[in-house]
Fold this protein.
Amino acid sequence: MNKSNLIMTAFNNAVKEIQYDKICMVSDIYWDPLLIPNGIDFFHTPRGRAIPFSAGLKLGNPKLKVAVFIGDLATIGGNHLMHAARRNIEILVICINNFIYKEIGNFSPEKFSSYSKSERPFNIPHLAKSCGSIYVARWTALHTKELTNTIVEAFNKSGLSVIEVMSPGANYFAGIENSTKESEILKYYYENSEIKNNEETNNLDIKSGKKIIVGKFVDRKRMKFIDSYNAQLSRILGDKFKRYG
Amino acid sequence: MNANPKDVFSGTYFIDGDVAAAYGAAAAGCKFLAGYPITPSTEAAEAFAKLAPRVGALFIQMEDELASIAAVVGASWSGKKSMTITSGPGFSLMMEGIGFGAAIETPFVIINIQRGGPSTGLPTLTSQSDFMQARWGSHGDYEIIALAPDSPQENFDFVIKAFNLAEKYRVPVMVMSDECVGHMTEKVVVPDASEIEVEPRRIYKGPKDQYVPFRPDKDLVPKMVKAGNGYQLYITGLTHDEKGYPLLKKDFRTNPRNSTAKRLVDKIRKNKDKIIETQEENLEDAEIVVISYGITSRVAIRGIEKARKYGIKVGSLRLITVWPFPDQMISELSKKVKGFVVPEINYGQIAYEVERCAHGNANVILVPHGGGSVHNPDDIFEAIKKAAKEKKKYDTLFEFETKLARLVSKEYKK
C-alpha cells in the first residue's frame, strides 16, 4: 500500500465529485504520472516553487482551480506558503507531511539527515491560520473519506486553503513510530488520531506520546487576492478601471 | 500580426530607459508582471504597474525573485504573455526558474537592468557583468536569447523584439540593459500600433486527443496550449520525452526522437541565422574591428572616430543579439583583419568568446572596465592604436615556422 496512492485516491474522488473542467495540479519534487486524475493538467515544478508557480497560473487565468501538493514539512518554499496565505490567492494547498524526504527515499535509499529526530516539526495548521489562510484541516492518509470531503469543500472556498495530510515518513521521527513498515505507520497514525473539529490551532503540535489531532480547524471568510486588487484599483481609478479576471 | 492599439501608447516621450522598457512590454502585449523591487530596475516595474490597469494586465509584487520567476512561468502557461524585471542579485536568484522555463519551453521575458557586482555590488551604478550568467547561469544544457540595448529607444524596441523571439522559439529571452541606459533620459518614439509587429503564441489547433506537447514543428519548436483546456498536460522539469513524460533512462541522449534535451539546444543553434542581429560599420576595409554591445557601443563610437582621424582603418561590429553568439561572422572576419578590440564594462566576458571565434587568426584586445561608470573613449582609442601596431599572431607564427623550416632544411643539407 502506497501512501501517495491513498492520498491520490482521495484527490481523484474529489476531482470526480467537483466536476469542473479547468483543474490544474501542481507539485514539486516528484510525482508519478499514473496517479494523476484523468482530464486535469499537471505541472511538476522545481522543488519548493510549486506555490508561486500556481499563484502565477491562477492569477494568469482566474478561471482555473489549482491544487498544489507540497511536502517536506513545508521547509523549502515555506516562505511562499506564508505569502500566498497572506495574499489569500485562491489555491488549495495539500501538504503531505512525511517529515522528511521519504518520497525521494523511494528513488534512492540514502537519507539526508539521519539524526533529525532532535528537530521540532512545524505546526502547519497554526502557521497557515496565522498567515491568513481561510480554510485549514488535517487528516491522516487513512482518513480517505474525510479527506475527500475536505478537498471538495476546500476547492469551493474563495481563498487559500491548507490541508495537512499525515503520512508515513521516516521511522525515527519524534520517536512516536515504532515500526519501519509504511502500512504499520499508517495504521499507527490512524489509530493515534483523534477527531477534534474547530480545535484551537496552537494545540495541534505533533508530539511524542500525544494524540494526533485531526479535523477541520479553520473555516472563515476573507477577501481573496483578485477581489481586493480590483477593489483597491477601482477605488483609486474610479470608473475608468476595468476589473481584472 | 500587429499590436493591439489598446496596448500601445503612441507618441513622442522624454523618458528614461526603465520607463521605455515598460512601454515596450505593454505594446508587446505583456499581461502579467511579477517582480520584486531592486535598484536600478524598480522604475521599470513601477511604470508597468501604472500602465497595467489600462492594458488589462496584472502586476504583482512577489515575496522574492524565486517566487517572481516561478509565477511568471506559471502565468505563461495560463496563456498570458508574461515577464519579470530585475537586476544582478535578483537575476542570480532567478537562475532556477530560468532553467525550469527553458526545460519546459516556456516563453517569457526577463529585463535585467544590470548593476555592478558581485553580490550587492554597486546598486546604483552600471555594469555589463551578467552576460555569462545570462548564458550559463542555470545548471544543465540549454540555450537562451539575450539582447543588448544601448538607448532608451532600444529598451522599448528590444522588449518588443524579446517578446516576439520568446513566442517564436518558446524560450526565455533576456533584455540585458544596464543602469546607464535604464536611468538615461532621452527621446523615445512609441510608434503607431500598426507599425509594431507582434508574434502571437504558437497555439495548437488540431484535435485534442492528438496533441503531443513536445513534438516539434519543422523549425524544431513545438506548439503550445493553455492550461485548463482539457489537453491533459503533463509538464515536468525532469528530462522528458515528446509526450512530456519523465525519461530517466541512461540512453535518452542517444534516442533523439524521444529526447527533448538535445532539441532545447538545437532549436536555437539551428535557427541562429534567423535570430542573430548585428550592426556593422566600415567593415569592408577594416584592419581593426571594435566589437561592442550595449551602452559600450555608444561610448566606442568616439574612440573609433578618433582612430579614423589618425588614419587607422577601424570598423565597428555591434552585437544586438549577444546570445546566440555570431561566431560564424567573427570567425570569417578574423581571417581578414589584424585585430579585434573588445571594450566591455567587466573584466572580460565576451572578449573570450571573440577570442574563441578568432581561432588565433587575429589579436583580441580586451578593454576592461570595473563598472560604476562607462569607459573613457580614450582607453578604447589607445587599444585600437595598440592593435594597429601589433602584427597578426598568425603572421608571427607563420614567420617563425618558415624560419624554422629553413633552419631545418639547412641542417639537413649539411
Q: What stands out?
A: Confidence is low (pLDDT under 50) at residues 101-116, 170-178 of chain A. The CA atoms of residues 86 and 227 of chain A lie 14 Å apart.
